[in-house]
Amino acid sequence: MTTTFLSTHTLAENLWPRGEKTTAQRIVRGVLLAFVGSLLIAVSSKIQVPFYPVPLNMATFAVLAIGMAYGPRLGLATILLYMAEGASGLPVFAGAPEKGIGLAYMSGPTGGYLLGFVFATGICGWAATRGWDRSIWKTAVAMLAANVAIYVPGLLWLGTLLGWEKPILDWGLYPFVLGDLTKLALASVSLPLIWRVLGRKS
Length: 202
What we know:
By secondary structure, the protein is mostly helical. It has ten helices and two strands; from the N terminus they run αααββααααααα. A hairpin with a 6-residue loop joins strand 1 (about 50) and strand 2 (about 55).
């Protein structure tokens, strides 16, 4: 494993190093990566995997994985671009356009979870710059914290919007816990495995 490999922090920097690029080239690199990342999240939001008790939606997996792969700044830029695409009316969110589009969708029951995506990306990006994504257990801890960061604003908004007398946890938490733990386990294995493959090739 080379010194260059060890000195860079994120998967994105190792797969596409910034190097001695000009400012314009760095901006183009960042824009392209952010666009590709937002596209991956949009595609993942449309993927429904049969599961119990509800189908798995892969959007959260993509959000957390991109946060880990990109780091905090590029990761946050990517998730904010994804939000801007959704706010503009593009059907990038899960259930769109059937459940609405644009700001109307974002102010609906899932709005708090979308805000949580921003917090989760920051947590995963922070963890990645400290090398947590090279360890199964540290990746799992970061992903767990990121999931909490999604659920807290999600449930707070859901309860505020629909009323706390309603079964908010039954609607917005319990059905998704098993699926999120499954996605967490998948990411916790996948990211360190990618690092090991890169290490053997470097």
